[in-house]
Amino acid sequence: MSLPPGFLDELRNRVPLSQVVGRKVTWDLRKSNQGKGDFWAPCPFHQEKSASFHVDDRKGFYYCFGCHAKGDAIAFVKDTENVGFMEAVEILAREAGMAMPARDPRAAEKADRRSQLAEVMEEAVKFYRLQLRTGAASAARDYLARRRLSEEGQERFGIGFAPDGRQALFQALTGKGIAPDLLVEAGLCARPEDGGAPYDRFRGRIIFPIRDARGRAISLGGRAMDPAARAKYLNGPETPLFDKGRNLYNAGPAREAAGKGQPLVVAEGYMDVIALSEAGFRATVAPLGTAITEDQLRLMWRIHPEPVIALDGDAAGIRAALRVVDLALPLLEAGQGLRFAVLPPGLDPDDLIRAEGASAMGRVLEAAQPMVGLLWRRETEGHVFDSPERRAALDKRLRAAVQRIADPSIRRHYGDELNRLRMEIFGTSVPRRAFHRGGKREPLAVAPHPSTRASLLATAAGERIEEEMRLGVILATCALHPTLIHEFETALEALELSDPDHRALHRVLLAAAGMAEADTARGAIRAEAGPALERLLALTHVRICPSVRHPGDLEMARMCLAEELAKLEARRGARQEIEEAVEDLAGLVDEGLTWRLSQAAEARHRAERARLDDSSDLGEDRAALSRSLQEMIDRQIWVKKRG
Fold first, then answer.
1. Which terminus of the chain is more exposed, N or C, with fewer CB under 10 A?
2. What does pTM read for this prediction?
3. Zn fingers (CHC2-type): where (predicted)?
4. Which CATH architecture has domain 103-242?
5. Best CA proximity match to 501, nearest among 546, 457, 461, 456
6. How confident is the prediction for the chain on average, in pLDDT?
């Protein structure tokens, strides 16, 4: 949906940022100067006691000097309410008393359909809640009693029961006038292959409503009462409301509890979340029947900067944790990490709480180890390092893991910690630079690897290196943000590419320019150019660029892409102008002028590289170069001066 010009400015003017933020923070009145629109408070995005979160009411922007969160009123609502851009605008518009502009008919129809599905889900939750009180649900009530789940807890989590009838829900809700198509689209019912009437998807199961961070019911989970059931736990299918890889069970209440200072605990399933919450650990979430995804990890970090992953102490639990480690390594940022709490073997959180009480679980969470400890455990546990070759293999694995970290500061600290742990075992350390870049120590003198000798850094001229690196960033940004391809299509078509991987990816990107859905385009790009794209994303200068480090920030990607393309065009234009000027003067001047012009160009490039100022305007450099060339012609520098 597009908004008319000036709508957002009017919205920001009507709703003071301090009013929006003030609902989530307590202002530090000693530090704030409210008369001048200057407000300070502890940051709502990370746990702290000092007032490092600053709101400038006149400019309409906030900034945290601790976690570096920044933005305007819309960004604040998006991040604190976990909503999209348009939903944030709607929330602020209601507060300001402004009517939202008329929507695109197709977009409005889609939103209305989602609203209908959400209403249907709420009706289903009510139906299943009532069924839990019937005689058919006696076994379910006994199970919940054995799990020590009180009536209040059942009410809080909306737990219900699906009777074992084929069409119990279907008949109840269609009897209220709800269309069968809505029941199927919401994932509550399914159509048989023979085309008959829809049947209930959940039968003979305890029902757990799944709600998004705003509290809307978006799907259901069900635990089978029959031990012979094919699936002990069953989640609803993917629907317009429900994407299981982008949601967390109990996200809304957990966010509220984490905002009050509780640690965010990540458990395995519904009953673990409920048991922990009932024991006082209200900031608890769980993935929805799958391994933790990148989107879920980012959602956890929006709730709390350092979630604690609670693991079963068996081999399967450790394997699951290590998958999370591999997922998280490239995404780590300062103040944003993970800790891992390993439970006693054979016990899940519910078992431990029932056996030893909430205090025992609290001790497990307090003993949670940082992620680097689990990484070290994976690379060393069960291995014998009784030879130089085996120790070298360990060093190689650790280097590979550390180099996956994009943030240079975190990469350095991981290298230091792994080196310390290595010394505890072997009594010697590897050179600091073996794990990370930086520092003043020299690396070990080793023969260059064949792939290094053949690399661009070893074979290409300096300017070509810079151009190839810039091209890599441009192509990687487009691959991760395919919606930008169409916007920059003309500039992308004009790229001059020599690297085979670049050419392969370039063809695939242009082919994907016409795809309407970003996810479809992204999938097609990975399918067609997977190896080339993986090699590109593995390069350090690509991994650390903002558009790759923050794949969810489309506006940042747009700015990075525009900047890189502009710099590339300006650099090539400046080089072409030098070449044309030298060519034009070739018939008029002696070799001395040609040599001096080449030296001037080389000096310019050296100065640019030494300056390393990304914010410089290359357009101004080009204009300055033109003036310098004209001045050299006017002064007739090719005429030899007599002494």
1. C
2. 0.56
3. 43-67
4. Alpha-Beta Complex (3.90)
5. 456
6. 81
